[in-house]
């Protein structure tokens, strides 16, 4: 995904992002914001990030012939518990990667 | 905050914890881009043009899976939709700001800048030098973010593929979203979205993401509606 196609994607991604950010800031003052819109937006971040995470953790790089990637699932579960307790981005990242590496390289399952 | 200059540095100082907290996030975004096979120059350009960490990571992950361009742009839009809420919340602070500057300030808008300004200032009593304050906070964020990303890109070229650095992407997302799940409805939205996305993950064009996100928002809204009725009863 490089070359002109990559650049086209990046430029379009930049334009839609700027559009979302600018939306209400550049509208004339006192534009009424529809409440249904704000109500839905509240749940967008809560929904979209887990939707990105789930397939990446469950199925990505699963061993040949298997559906699930157990190492990633265990590492993500540990990271989830840690994130809920500490709210630390860096700690969650470090711990999740450490658990994955540990499982991959020293696992009795091979 | 009596002069634009002092307001600029006040903004910079107030945003500094957030800026420093973002450094590992920026570095991992750069490293993940290289690990995913994105051209370093393109990864840097994406960071400058899009300037939104979570959306950058989502785009990188999809690029690595050779998703179609339209789906990648749509995903970036969905990941960034929350900023429409920030835009609505920030608009009153920039009522007297010239239009060209409003576009610049929009480009620089982040979760951190939104949180800082809306908690520090009342929107009915906006300080005189809010523009300088905001620019101090966001320009510093921009510069440090780009430096962190460049370091990450450089470091990423040294990391072998078997380290599975791409796993950092879901981990960062987890650490961003979990602390934000403050109500039962948010939890319902998150769990429904993850479940739907997992079941729909074999759909073509990565449509599972869109199915998951839509399911999550609907479940969140329904859950809120029911808990409100429960509270009334």
Brief write-up:
The complex is a heterodimer of chains A (110) and B (233). With 110 residues, chain A is an all-alpha fold.
Q: What does the model show?
A:
The complex is a heterodimer of chains A (110) and B (233). Chain A has 110 residues and is mainly alpha-helical. Helix content of chain A is 75%, strand content 0%. Chain A is extended and about 60 Å long. The longest helix of chain A is centred in the N-terminal third of the chain and has 24 residues, at 3-26. The model of chain A has no long low-confidence stretch (mean pLDDT 88). In chain A, helix 3 runs antiparallel to helix 4. In chain B, helix 2 packs parallel to helix 4 and helix 4 (53-64) packs antiparallel against helix 5. With 233 residues, chain B is mainly alpha-helical. In chain B, 74% of the residues lie in helices and 0% in strands. The model of chain B has no long low-confidence stretch (mean pLDDT 92). At the A-B interface, helix 1, helix 2, helix 3 and helix 4 of A face helix 2, helix 3, helix 4, helix 5 and helix 6 of B.
How does the SSE layout of this entry go?
The complex is a heterodimer of chains A (110) and B (233).
Chain A: H1 3-26, H2 35-58, H3 70-86, H4 89-106
Chain B: H1 4-21, H2 23-35, H3 40-50, H4 53-64, H5 69-80, H6 82-90, H7 99-107, H8 111-120, H9 130-156, H10 168-177, H11 184-199, H12 207-232
Runs of chain A in which pLDDT lies below 50 for 5 or more consecutive residues are none
Largest sheet of chain A: none
Oligomeric state of shown chains: heterodimer
How many discrete structural domains of chain A?
2
**Gyration radius of chain A, in Å:** 20 Å
The first-to-last residue Cα distance of chain A is 33 Å
Helix content of chain A: over 70%
SS strand fraction of chain B: under 5%
How widely separated are the two ends of chain B? Answer: 49 Å
Uncertain parts of chain B: none
Helix/sheet category of chain A: mainly alpha
- N-to-C order of helices and strands of chain A: HHHH
Largest sheet of chain B: none
Give the percentage of residues in beta strands of chain A: under 5%
The string of secondary-structure elements of chain B, in order, is HHHHHHHHHHHH
Distinct helical segment count of chain A: 4
**Structural class category of chain B:** mainly alpha
Q: What would you call the shape of chain A?
A: extended
Considering DSSP H and I runs of 4 or more, what fraction of the residues of chain B is helical? over 70%
């Amino acid at each position: 995904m490089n070359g002109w196609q990559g650049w086209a994607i990046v430029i379009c991604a930049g334009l839609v992002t700027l559009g979302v950010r600018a939306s209400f800031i550049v509208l004339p003052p006192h534009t009424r914001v529809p409440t249904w819109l704000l109500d839905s937006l509240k749940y967008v971040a809560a929904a979209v990030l887990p939707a990105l995470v789930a397939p990446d953790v469950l199925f990505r790089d699963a061993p040949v012939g298997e559906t699930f990637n157990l190492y990633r699932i265990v590492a993500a579960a540990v990271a989830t518990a840690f994130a809920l307790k500490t709210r630390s981005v860096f700690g969650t990242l470090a711990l999740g990667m450490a658990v994955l590496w540990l499982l991959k390289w020293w696992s009795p399952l091979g | 905050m009596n002069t634009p200059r002092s307001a600029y540095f006040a903004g910079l100082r107030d945003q500094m914890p957030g800026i420093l907290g973002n450094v590992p996030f920026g570095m991992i975004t750069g490293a993940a881009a290289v690990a995913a096979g994105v051209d370093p120059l393109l990864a840097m350009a994406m960071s400058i043009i899009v300037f939104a960490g979570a959306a950058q990571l989502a785009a990188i992950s999809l690029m690595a899976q050779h998703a179609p361009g339209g789906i990648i742009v749509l995903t970036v839009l969905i990941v960034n939709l929350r900023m429409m809420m920030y835009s609505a919340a920030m608009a009153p602070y920039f009522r007297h700001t010239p239009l060209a500057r409003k576009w610049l300030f929009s480009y620089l808008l982040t979760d951190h800048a939104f949180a800082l300004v809306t908690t520090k200032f009342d929107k009915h009593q906006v300080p005189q030098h809010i523009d300088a304050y905001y620019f101090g906070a966001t320009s510093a964020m921009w510069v440090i973010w780009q430096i962190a990303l460049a370091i990450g890109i450089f470091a990423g070229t040294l990391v072998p593929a078997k380290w599975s650095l791409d796993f950092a992407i879901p981990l960062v997302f987890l650490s961003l979203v979990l602390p934000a799940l403050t109500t039962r409805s948010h939890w319902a939205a998150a769990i429904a979205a993850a479940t739907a996305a997992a079941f729909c993950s074999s759909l073509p064009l990565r449509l599972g993401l869109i199915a998951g996100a839509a399911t999550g928002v609907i479940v969140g809204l329904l859950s809120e509606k029911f808990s409100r009725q429960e509270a009334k009863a």
